[in-house]
Specification:
- By secondary structure, the protein is an alpha+beta fold.
- The protein has helices spanning 40-43, 62-78, 118-121, 123-128, 135-140, 158-170, 172-195, 218-229, and strands spanning 6-15, 21-29, 32-38, 47-52, 103-108, 196-207, 209-211, 214-216, 231-240, 249-251, 265-267, 271-279.
- It folds into two domains: 6-71, no CATH class; 103-279, no CATH class.
- Helix content is 31%, strand content 29%.
- Strands 5-6-12-9 form a four-stranded mixed β-sheet.
- Helix 7 crosses helix 8.
Length: 280
């Protein structure tokens, strides 16, 4: 049986080129998650239970929650994933301490340009845990920060060049920050290519945004940069972002974060993409 699982968003109308009006139901579809697998030997039948969208924990029954936890744990255990050795490093993503052609998979969600100064968000944690004593130097080490004084900028993307040029007409400071971000992410992608095996995959979670009326198409720029470096697109997954704990709207005119009551508000990051790129 083939079907699409989704939920009703709203009703609207579609006008054909001939001027006819058609009522339309807008459906938000996929992706879905397999939450449980039923087996004939144990359950009496073969079936798959799937889930769609985000649900609050208090709305999930204890039996369903237990099944999801048990199924995931069981899968990890059967694949011996719980015994897999791992070691954690705190390093610069542009200089990863790994040999060439040795990595099969990279999964990352890089900083979101024009969103937040990540150094400011984490400065108290950095001081408490004593992995920095100089906040000025701490800021300079973040990718895409406006404090690092980068002079050589290589965008490696025609789309990135266009975005930078459009922004320069509105705000040169913002344009420089975006250009630095794209340039430093290009360095990260070069490093990914170096350490990935042939056929290895890099999964990048990133959102698009707009700033002062200019569309900042991060996902499209990343895809172009990585293709220019020797990757190919394996898949692209798009999802709506329901909410974030940090400020989620900005003033469309000034580009600054705004309250949810602002008349000029627009979503900072309404959607996210998962770029699945393969080294060729």
């Amino acid at each position: 049986m083939k079907f699409i699982l989704g939920k009703k968003e709203n009703m609207t109308e579609y006008f054909s080129p001939e001027g006819q009006v058609f009522p339309v139901t807008v459906i938000l579809a996929g992706p879905i998650t397999v939450t449980k697998i039923f087996e004939k030997g144990k359950d009496g039948y073969d079936a798959v239970q799937v889930g769609f969208d985000v649900q609050k924990k208090e709305r999930i029954t204890k039996s369903s929650l237990g099944a999801m936890k048990g199924g995931f744990y069981k899968t990890l255990k059967e694949n011996n994933s719980l015994k897999t050795f791992c070691k954690t490093y705190c390093k610069d993503a542009r200089k990863i301490p790994t040999k060439n052609n040795t990595v099969s998979l990279i999964v990352t969600s890089p900083p979101y340009v024009t969103s937040y100064e990540y150094a400011d968000l984490h400065q108290l944690t950095a001081l408490w845990f004593e992995y920095t004593k100089n906040l000025s130097d701490f800021r300079k080490r973040f990718i895409g920060t406006s404090h690092n004084g980068v002079k050589k900028i290589v965008l490696n993307s025609q789309l990135a060049e266009k975005i930078k040029n459009y922004l320069e007409r509105k705000d040169k400071k913002f344009a420089k920050e975006v250009a630095i971000y794209f340039s430093e992410m290009n360095q990260c992608f070069k490093e990914m290519k170096r350490i990935l095996k042939k056929g290895g995959q890099a999964c990048i979670v990133i959102g698009n945004t707009s700033l002062k009326g200019v569309e900042i198409l991060n996902a499209e720029v990343f895809a172009e940069q990585m293709q220019n470096l020797g990757f190919k697109i394996d898949d692209i997954i798009k999802r709506e972002i329901p909410s974030k704990n940090l400020p989620s709207v900005r003033d469309e005119i000034t580009g600054r974060f705004a309250s949810s009551n602002s008349k000029n508000k627009i979503s900072v990051y309404p959607t996210e993409y998962i770029l699945i790129m393969k080294k060729i």
